[in-house]
Amino acid sequence: MKLYTPDAILLGTTSPIVSKGTEGLQKYFEMLPGSGRKNAITERYTIVLNDDAVVGTGLYTFSRAAEGDAPRPSRFTMLVVRRDGKWMIAHHHSSPRAATRQ
Q1: 4-96 domain in CATH 3.10.450.50?
Q2: What is the value of pTM for the model shown?
Q3: How far is the CA of 41 from the CAs of 61, 66, 90, in angstroms?
């Protein structure tokens, strides 16, 4: 949670709602510790907006330790801002990646 601003907004890969602020993000991420879930970034790009804001976007794959769970290709966009000298995520969007273009 220390990576996110207190007023961050998250559009999570598996969530039907918008998670807002520390409390909302904690609720979204509460199942992660000890879950065996992993995330591997496979492609990434950055766009510098100014000295205090950068957009990062790309592709990543989620996997779980449980047998039989297929990797889930996904995509992301993050707005990272500098606040009080620390770089933090202010907005994070993640969604499943389409298998083919339609």
Answers
A1: yes
A2: 0.83
A3: 7, 20, 19
